[in-house]
Amino acid sequence: MPFLNYRLPFQVDHITARQHGGPTDSGNLAFACFHCNRHKGPNIAGLDPATGQVVRLFHPRTDSWSEHFRLEGATLAGLTSIGRATVQVLAMNEPEFVAVREALMMEGVYPQPPRSA
Ligand SMILES: [Zn+2]
Q1: How far is the CA of 91 from the centre of ligand 1 (A)?
Q2: For 56-95, what is each residue's pLDDT tens digit?
Q3: What is the Å distance from ligand 1's center to 13 Cα?
Q4: Rounded to the nearest whole angstrom, what is the distance from the C-alpha of residue 48 to the centroid of ligand 1?
Q5: Are 2 and 104 in contact (CB under 8 A)?
Q6: How much distance in Å is there from the Cα of 60 to the middle of ligand 1?
Q7: Measured in angstroms, how far is the CA atom of residue 30 from the centroid of ligand 1?
Q8: What is the model's pLDDT at position 82?
Q9: pLDDT by residue (tens digit) across 13-67?
Q10: How far, in Å, from the CA of 21 to the mean position of ligand 1?
């Protein structure tokens, strides 16, 4: 969820949780909204709903957003097994979350997804 439009404070999240040996350094920290951080918890992997296979989650420091995700209206589609598992684990398409995204898009304040490098 975009930082400027979110009422709850953002949280600094360990991408690889400390319980899995993830370090507390800038390469392993992400600024996450409460919703994403709450759903991610210590997870580092999820099930790809298309195949049932265990795959690692999207890594916001090293993975390309546009390789793994695409906006379809206000719904986030996973393009890869990593993208699909991340959408699932982080519950990124919960109805109220999609509704907020839709409202921000209608107001013209939803940021464009980052371009791949
Ligand atoms: Zn979020």
Answers
A1: 9
A2: 999 999 999 999 999 999 999 999 999 999 999 999 999 9
A3: 11
A4: 19
A5: yes
A6: 12
A7: 11
A8: 98
A9: 999 999 999 999 999 999 888 888 899 999 999 999 999 999 999 999 999 999 9
A10: 23
* pTM for the predicted model, two decimal places: 0.86
**Is there a contact between 91 and 83 (Cβ–Cβ < 8 Å)?**
no
Ligand 1 centre and the CA of 77: distance in Å?
A: 15
Q: How far apart are CA 48 and CA 79, in angstroms?
A: 11
Contact (Cβ atoms closer than 8 angstroms) between residue 55 and residue 49: no
pLDDT of residue 113: 66
Task: Give the residue from 64, 57, 112, 100 showing the smallest Cα distance to 82.
Answer: 57
- Which tokens is 50 given? 């298309």
Q: What are the CA-CA distances from residue 14 to residues 4, 18, 44, 82 (Å)?
A: 21, 7, 10, 18
109 alpha carbon to ligand 1 midpoint, in Å?
Answer: 16
Residues with CB under 5 A from ligand 1 (ion): 1, 33, 36
